Amino acid sequence: xxxxxxxxxxxxxxxxxxxxxxxxxxxxxxxxxxxxxxxxxxxxxxxxxxxxxxxxxxxxxxxxxxxxxxxxxxxxxxxxxxxxxxxxxxxxxxxxxxxxxxxxxxxxxxxxxxxxxxxxxxxxxxxxxxxxxxxxxxxxxxxxxxxxxxxxxxxxxxxxxxxxxxxxxxxxxxxxxxxxxxxxxxxxxxxxxxxxxxxxxxxxxxxxxxxxxxx
Length: 215
Hints:
Layout: E1 2-4, E2 19-25, H1 35-55, E3 61-66, H2 73-83, H3 85-96, E4 100-103, H4 107-120, H5 126-154, E5 160-165, H6 167-170, E6 179-184, H7 187-201, H8 206-214
Parallel strand pairs: 1-6, 2-5, 2-6, 3-4, 3-5
Helix pairs in contact: 1-7, 2-3, 4-5
């Protein structure tokens, strides 16, 4: 696995004849996000574009694998533009250059996965939380296996693909050994993670609230 934290060009010859997968972490803004965070988001996607342009010397992107959508073509781009305008622009540009967009989701799995995840955020008793967690894990595993199956089936020969997925989800995937994986992590990614950790530490202790709800 190749980790790219600085803008650099890989040695094209080193990866010739291999399937290649360039991985970028999906990062979203949120409602009423402060300007400082939105600026970090803007910088992140700007750096992602730069990294992609550099890394494509190892192989032009031919397939785009994207989480959180099951739609295709223009419908998929329309959905993406509403949830992440930066990402939709990158994908649209690559499609104009000839890449094919392949959604990683299906309605049958993404729907229950999302619903059970939402339930986890609102339950207070341990008994209910653990039961909901069981269902959530079932659909989480189905979702990850589906993602691997789609990548394995559609990234063929010596093709290069772009994987767009939350970093914590991507880390759970076990890629076939014949796929060379590149992790694109611009410097601004660490800045965003630091900002989020600092804000999380400022929040009240939610675990104490949950314990009080168990009584």
